[in-house]
């Protein structure tokens, strides 16, 4: 019998856990998690119900758990591979089906090797009518840094190696949620720009957050100084504002969905409309006349 191949190993998750532990111990910059946690609180406050059993899955800090508590909806269990009430493998969580009424996850799922599988696991762990709310880094994040590093390395060494992790596109997230079995799936994005004195400030923040390169196929050689210097020049030339500061794009993709339940709103069946599109347009034209 031949074994079925598992998902490709994109990320070195052991290295990720080590870097996150070190970053947290040194007081990592938390501007992304603070922004995401504020958004999570707003989203929870629009849901007029409580969630007695809640899980914070994989979030690298306490920000998401604190937002859930602040919402008054629950006091979640924190579980991740590096910190929390339980130390687990987020790619294979050890919880039984239907264990939770609410699962949140903040800026963690972008580093799983099998995102469709992780979403399916979250769906499995939810009780009927349970809510899943997660955010992760989006595909437009750090586009300037990617471009500058790739161009500099190509110019100086004759070839570019991957230096920034690939992130999910919001246009794909809705389909992934449906594929995982969520009802009423919604995907949206929070896009914003931060500004730095130079590329070096941005790279310093990324290292301090434990968000440096963890790709399995990353180059094991450190970036050459001449490559970094050229990348800084390119960044300043292409992505600089009038005051000399450079831009860094960030994108937080939000994903939400419910475990199916008979009480939920159902989409209308094809052909069940009371009025045809042609009649609706005719009615509109007559009302405008």
SS element count, helices: 9
For the largest sheet, list the strands in their spatial order: 3-2-1-4-5-7-6
The low-confidence parts are none
Mean pLDDT equals 88
Q: Work out the radius of gyration.
A: 22 Å
In total, how many beta strands? 7
Euclidean distance between termini CA atoms: 72 Å
Order of helices and strands: HHEHEEEHEHHEHHEH
Which structural category fits the helices and strands? alpha/beta
Largest sheet: 7 strands, mixed
From the spread of the alpha carbons, the general shape counts as elongated
Can you walk through the features of this model?
This protein is an alpha/beta fold and 289 residues long. The protein is built from nine helices and seven strands; from the N terminus they run H-H-E-H-E-E-E-H-E-H-H-E-H-H-E-H. The chain has helices spanning 13-25, 31-45, 63-71, 115-125, 143-157, 170-179, 199-208, 225-238, 277-288, and strands spanning 54-57, 77-80, 86-87, 100-106, 126-137, 183-196, 246-258. Helix 4 links the parallel strand 4 and strand 5 (126-137). Helix 5 packs across helix 8. The longest helix is centred in the N-terminal third of the chain and has 15 residues, at 31-45. The protein is elongated, with a radius of gyration of 22 Å. The termini are far apart.
Features:
single chain, alpha/beta, seven-stranded mixed sheet, 7 strands, elongated
Summarize the helices and strands and which ones pair or pack.
Layout: H1 13-25, H2 31-45, E1 54-57, H3 63-71, E2 77-80, E3 86-87, E4 100-106, H4 115-125, E5 126-137, H5 143-157, H6 170-179, E6 183-196, H7 199-208, H8 225-238, E7 246-258, H9 277-288
Parallel strand pairs: 1-2, 1-4, 2-3, 4-5
Antiparallel strand pairs: 5-7, 6-7
Helix pairs in contact: 2-3, 5-8
């Amino acid at each position: 019998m031949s074994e079925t191949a598992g998902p490709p190993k994109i990320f070195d998750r052991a290295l990720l856990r080590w870097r996150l532990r070190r970053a947290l111990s040194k007081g990592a910059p938390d501007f992304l998690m603070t922004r995401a946690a504020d958004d999570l609180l707003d989203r929870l406050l629009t849901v007029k119900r409580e969630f007695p059993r809640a899980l914070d899955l994989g979030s690298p800090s306490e920000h998401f758990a604190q937002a859930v508590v602040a919402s008054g909806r629950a006091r979640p269990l924190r579980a991740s591979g590096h910190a929390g009430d339980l130390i687990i493998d987020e790619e294979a969580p050890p919880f039984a089906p239907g264990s939770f009424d609410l699962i949140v996850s903040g800026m963690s799922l972008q580093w799983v090797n099998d995102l469709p599988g992780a979403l399916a696991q979250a769906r499995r762990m939810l009780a009927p009518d349970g809510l899943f709310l997660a955010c992760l880094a989006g595909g437009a994040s750090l586009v300037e840094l990617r471009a500058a590093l790739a161009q500099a390395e190509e110019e100086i060494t004759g070839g570019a190696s991957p230096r920034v992790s690939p992130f999910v596109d919001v246009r794909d997230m809705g389909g992934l949620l449906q594929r995982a079995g969520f009802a009423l799936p919604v995907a949206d994005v929070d896009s914003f720009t931060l500004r730095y004195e130079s590329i070096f400030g941005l790279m310093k923040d990324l290292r301090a957050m434990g968000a440096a390169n963890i790709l399995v196929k990353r180059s094991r050689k450190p970036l050459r100084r001449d490559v970094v210097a050229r990348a800084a020049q390119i960044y300043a030339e292409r992505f600089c504002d009038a005051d000399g500061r450079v831009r860094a794009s960030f994108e937080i993709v939000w994903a939400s969905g419910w475990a199916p339940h008979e009480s939920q709103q159902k989409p209308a069946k094809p052909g069940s409309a009371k009025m045809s599109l042609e009649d609706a347009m005719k009615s509109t034209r007559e009302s405008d006349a």
